[in-house]
Amino acid sequence: MGERGRGGCCPPMDLMRSEPMQLVQLILPVESAHLAVSYLGDLGLIQIKDLNAEKSPFQRTYAIQIKRCGEMSRKLRFFRDQMSKAGLAPTTRSLPQDVLNLDDLEVKLGDLDAELVEINANGEKLQRSYNELMEYKLVLQKAGEFFNSALSSAEARQREYASHQSGEESLETPLLSELETANDLSKHVKLGFIAGLVTREKSMAFERILFRATRGNVFLKQAVVDEPVIDPVSGEKVEKNVFVVFFSGERAKNKILKICEAFGANRYSFSEDVSKKTQMITEVSGRLSELKSTIDAGAVHRGNLLQTIGEQFEQWNLLVRKEKAIYHTLNMLSIDVTKKCLVAEGWSPVFATKQIQEALHRATHDSKSQVDAIFQVLYTREMPPTYFRTNKFNSAFQEIVDAYGVAKYQEANPGVFTIVTFPFLFAVMFGDWGHGICLLLATLYFIVREKKLSSQKLGDIMEMTFGGRYVIMLMAIFSIYTGFIYNEFFSVPFELFASSAYACRDPSCRDSTTVGLIKVRDTYPFGVDPAWHGTRSELPFLNSLKMKMSILLGVAQMNLGIIMSFFNALFFKNSLNVWFQFIPQIIFLNSLFGYLSVLIIIKWCTGSQADLYHVMIYMFLSPTDELGENQLFPGQKTAQLVLLLLALVSVPWMLLPKPFLLKLQHSRQQGDSYAPLPDAEESLRSAANHDSHSHEEFEFSEVFVHQLIHTIEFVLGAVSNTASYLRLWALSLAHSELSVVFYEKVLLLAWGYNNVVILIVGIIVFICATVGVLLVMETLSAFLHALRLHWVEFQNKFYEGDGYKFYPFSLALLDHEEE
Fold first, then answer.
1. CA–CA separation, 23 vs 2, rounded Å?
2. Is residue 221 within a helix (H) or strand (E), and if so which, with residue range?
3. Cα 338 to the center of its chain, rounded Å
4. 3-state SS, residue 807
5. Residues 6+ away with beta carbon under 8 Å from 456
6. Cα(400)–Cα(390) distance, integer angstroms
7. Quick one: CA torsion of 593, 598, 604, 607, rounded to 10 degrees?
8. Collapsing DSSP states into helix, strand and coil, what is residue 324?
């Protein structure tokens, strides 16, 4: 096998076992520690352990630097929000490396932050003044109209009164004229008024409260403002009315002011004098134009500043996040007593040793340190993390396994087999090559556009679908394959590989059983003969076929799981698990269900009419009885007796010897005072293979109960797990029958009406039902059932899944993470 990427530095990818790991210690001089951690982060092949777990974040060495980075991150978030509000997007532009200095950046960000805050504050003040003047102008215009109309009305009445005075007096002339009353100063009443704006939705309530509070002793005049007005306080566009309240007395004035304040009505001073009012409108208009030009100039200056920030934002943001990550990592290192060097411990793959040493040497050289960093491997019995190097194709399959549990260090990885078995078991339940093609086309869209889509932010469901695009692609390809076997294209059979081997004896045979069909050609070469579809015997035939096929697949996969437990035991040099776990388990499973699988194959090959239910039931109830017509091969009775005896013997074989042998091993280890030190690899393997009996205190009762539970679980699980694989048959049948229902009861029914409108409606309903039910819901259902078969029926035979993932310190991951 050739070497894989990274310039030929890494060994070939091996998914069967996780990468060999080592615990390393790094002793870094203080002057080169920052650069060393930075280079290790670029490398991304070491998981640093926290050696200061007992210290709080504020007690650590680099707490001040992290606080500085946090403050710079806050300023950058503020810049991003401001750019977002301004409709600007950060642009990516490479900068010279010497410009990107953290101390210079801190000063620069501080200056930009202060300038932007000042611009925003000034802009808000100017905008508020502008909005207030706009409202003031509206009040002057609308309220001026009130007074102008009132003045013209008063002048008209005065002229009318004068004309009446010049004429003859009549009986209707009042005894006291209005002029005389007006000349009586003692009866003169001086009215005050308040003008302003109130929101339109509150105007009715405002009027009602004013009337009640003053007992009707006010006169309110309102005018609707046509365009929405920007409120000076909230800054939002609001529909408002201009109002003028006329009142008499100081007490009424105080009440009106309080009501205005409660309703958020903005009040403005107003003069009755027409000449003054005209002058004020001219002054306000002049100030508005001045403010508008000032605000526009401020907006241009702010836009230019944000544009400058946006050009360098991504580099600044990445630098701050990297520095923050580096200082977080430095805080995990313990400082030497002399405070001249930092000590780091961490896990790294064995193949990365040379690269780590080169990175440390480069850091020493670049920082011009007089002392080189020290790299050494530590021997430990601690469980190492699990690290599989995956690519974009197999990473989704590995995630399926990891969702159940991360593999223990160097135990056999089910992900290797999942790449094939998972999409295949899905396809057994989803077999229809028409649906498979639809699924494949949808997946190819994601694969063809993966570069573009990977850089976009997708929704949760789309993100999950895009991540599993290669899983879905294989599921679709296998579904096309099983669809050819089932001979179903949207439930319609086709004579793809040859003509049907059967023909009708007479026209009525379609409603009869297979007796009505006669074989006229060679057997159909691949898959189910299309002649079966639509006959009365289709369902019994396909049920029998799919049920037996499900058992065969299930027994094969469970045997694979038990065989993997054998390879685990060999790898970890655990002979007890070979002799007292693997051998009795493989015997027990195959004595019962392996034998059933052989009977199914023999029955298929010979065409026997034997009842397999009867054979299996009476194998336990009456093993010595003659088989009669259910005999499939000579010596079957003797074989069944032997297999039954082996199955019975394998149960105590699993249960009894292992706990006693473990006790004997423990007592021998207690007797040995000295033992040779294992090398690093052996110590890690023994640590990974630890059980409850490997601790100092050996409790025989606990070990025995654990073994008893394990034995009962396997014996009962052998039956229940085999039955669980019948879900392959059930889901496949459900999918097939739903396809038939949608095809016959929707599409063919609409076709039979000979009406174009009904046909179009029928096609639309058929497409929606096929996509919604069969391509979405059925896909999800089959996916979950295939997931359960892998997690429970397959992986519990050998997979412990009690490890923990390898999370290296990597600065490259910061580019794809949201802060």
1. 27
2. strand 219-224
3. 47
4. coil
5. none
6. 13
7. -110
8. helix
Pairing of strands 240-247, 47-48: unpaired
* 3 state DSSP class of 38: helix
633: left (phi over 0), alpha (psi -120 to 50) or beta: beta
Q: In which residue are the tokens 């000449």 written?
A: 275
CA atoms in the 13 A half-sphere facing the CB of 307: 6
Query: Can you give the pLDDT at residue 578?
Result: 95
H/E/C letters for each residue in 579-626? HHHHHHHHHHHHHHHHHHHHHHHHHHHHCCCCCHHHHHHHHHHCCCCC
**Contact (Cβ atoms closer than 8 angstroms) between residue 446 and residue 468:** no
Contact partners, residue 780, CB within 8 Å, separation at least 6: none
Mean pLDDT, to the nearest integer, of 807-816?
83
Statement: residue 307 has pLDDT above 70: yes
The pTM (predicted TM-score) of the whole model is: 0.80
Q: How far apart are CA 377 and CA 391, in angstroms?
A: 29
Best CA proximity match to 343, nearest among 808, 809, 26, 23: 26
- Residue 390 is classified by DSSP as -
Contact status, residue 163 vs residue 246, Cβ threshold 8 Å: no
**Which pLDDT score, from 0 to 100, does residue 226 have?**
83
Domain range list for the chain: 543-669+699-752
- Decide if pLDDT at 430 tops 50: yes
Tokens linked to 566? 């054998």
487: left (phi over 0), alpha (psi -120 to 50) or beta: left
**Helices then strands (H, E): number in the chain?**
27, 13
The Cα–Cα gap between 367 and 790 comes to 52
Tell me the C-alpha distance between 220 and 232, whole Å.
24
**CA atoms of 426 and 480, how far apart (whole Å):** 11
Whether 27 and 374 have beta carbons less than 8 Å apart is answered as yes
Return d(Cα 435, Cα 395) in angstroms, integer.
25
Interatomic CA distance for residues 660 and 653, integer angstroms: 12
Q: Report the alpha-carbon distance of residue 109 to residue 771 in Å, rounded.
A: 53
What is the rounded average pLDDT for all residues in the chain? 87
Q: What is the pLDDT of residues 714-768, one digit of tens each?
A: 999 999 999 999 999 999 999 999 999 999 999 999 988 888 999 999 999 999 9
Can you read off the two tokens belonging to residue 143? 């309220």
Mean pLDDT of 117-141: 89
Digit-coded pLDDT (tens) for 349-364: 999 999 999 999 999 9
Give the Cα-Cα-Cα angle 199, 204, 209 (nearest 5 degrees): 105
Q: Which helix (H) or strand (E) holds 478?
A: helix 469-486
Note whether 268 and 139 are within 8 A (CB): yes
| Average pLDDT of the residues in 261-287 | 82
Q: What are the pLDDT digits (tens) for 756-786?
A: 999 999 999 999 999 999 999 999 999 999 9
% of the chain residues with pLDDT over 90: 58
**Contact of 336 with 342, CB cutoff 8 Å:** yes
CA atoms of 481 and 435, how far apart (whole Å): 11
CB contact at 8 A, 594 and 559: yes
For residue 279, give Cα distances in angstroms to 133, 151, 285, 288: 14, 19, 10, 14
Q: What is the pLDDT of residue 1?
A: 37
